Request: fold
Amino acid sequence: MKASLKSILSLTTLFFISACGADDSAWRKLELNNTALLTLPHGKVVIELAPQFSPKHVAQFSELTKQGFYDGTKFYRVIDGFVAQAGPKDGSKKDKSVPLLEMESQWKTDKNWSFTQVQKQDLFAQQTGFKDSFAIAYQAGEKQDSGSAWLTHCPGTLAMARGNEADSASSHFYFVIGQAPRYLDDIMTIFGRVVYGMQHVQAIQRTEVVEGEYAVDHRDFTKIIKMQLMSDVVKVEQIHIEVENTESSAFAERLVKRRARDGAFFYKKPPPVLDVCQIPIRSRIVQ
Amino acid sequence: MKASLKSILSLTTLFFISACGADDSAWRKLELNNTALLTLPHGKVVIELAPQFSPKHVAQFSELTKQGFYDGTKFYRVIDGFVAQAGPKDGSKKDKSVPLLEMESQWKTDKNWSFTQVQKQDLFAQQTGFKDSFAIAYQAGEKQDSGSAWLTHCPGTLAMARGNEADSASSHFYFVIGQAPRYLDDIMTIFGRVVYGMQHVQAIQRTEVVEGEYAVDHRDFTKIIKMQLMSDVVKVEQIHIEVENTESSAFAERLVKRRARDGAFFYKKPPPVLDVCQIPIRSRIVQ
Reply:
């Protein structure tokens, strides 16, 4: 009983704090020109782009998408539990036609910057949390206003592939389809995340097989039927998505509950910690 | 150059230590009566069972499997990024015909017990590592010989579902298909893991949809064509699997390399830490 009162009080505090913010809506509608629609032979996938974090990568990806650059290209490197990677044939004329991009990973935070903290002392970062529904890591600076932050790899993350050089990404991209490869954080440019249809990303034909098994014929690799910005999709086929607003008090409340594991199912309590990649950010389809 | 010499030296030490163990083979062949073959409409999945950790659960699962209990049942609760759960209809005669199982999760370790350590200060446990190719967590005891250990949830983990009571598991099982739900560690009985065909588990029809989407018709739920012990499969259709021996020096060397991230691709080094669920344990098919 004591515990329940305490959590009601802390929830009330959260509501109160968040009520001072600009927008406490539990849901946020995605802008159509900031959303991509990937049509696969077996289903549709919707991606939220992140120009606020990786403006040059989103600009290049959006421009290529508008040109139909990805249409007909294949997922040519798909490793179960790791990534599904797509783009034009490596080293082809089409591949080489695209300018290289400068890495956009870590950014400096100033004293006005804030985020929704999830966990301190995460395995790979001082702190983890969410900003605009994207999973991030945060490192406090020596001074109060000189921290740094970066997007983290979780299942469904969209990032640009690259060569060995930092600034060698161009058009090849990958989705994370397994346990978060957090060791890639801050050395790859993440620029989006899957908000709908992740099961179709999971069903993409794997291209790597185990030893002793027949290789997969490249003609069976999964093809991108079409990649479009949602704003360029004919109206009747547009998918309008709302995602959880991770800056809202409703979301803060959900984090508190998820950490507490108060349900009867938890006959023994797990440690009160949260893996930032194991918190589903809900989406819903709206008219 | 200095760093390279250092890592060569530490590898040599590892080889030397492991050379004193009983079996230093890099691969371990799975016994056919300790392996299950799950035939889905779209592919075959091989499971390694863990009688050394969860003897009663494996015994019951094996007995039910031999009876053809699971054949024709469906994956009735499939949540993308979380679990794919199957078994007979909840509360049905078939469901109720099965005796309840006592929880088998944590076990005490004595002074002769050993494991391959992966990480200290993991988010959910004092230590993580591998034992017999299964991901585990370990907590040292007050005395040297009174620690405890338990299997951890990772993608591909097979565990028995249950009701709210600890000892209420019976026949319904689930595979983990997303970021490791580590908060379920030690309150569920894990009794196996996928060693082959995980991409087919990932392609199982999801039963839960997002708000605003049409519900999935239960007739479209993925059916289990057949669940068999591999020893009961006709010889020409048996799949013989070897898995990495996580107690070998070859595996220890792989952990050292994976932590060091020495490749040219890592122009900036990630933290030298490893997530136990982000280390693929390799399998191969043999004759």
Q: What stands out?
A: Helices of chain A lie at 2-19, 55-67, 93-96, 198-202, 249-260. Confidence is low (pLDDT under 50) at residues 1-9, 11-20 of chain A. The two ends of chain A are 42 Å apart (CA to CA). Chain A touches chain B through 53 residues (CB under 8 Å).
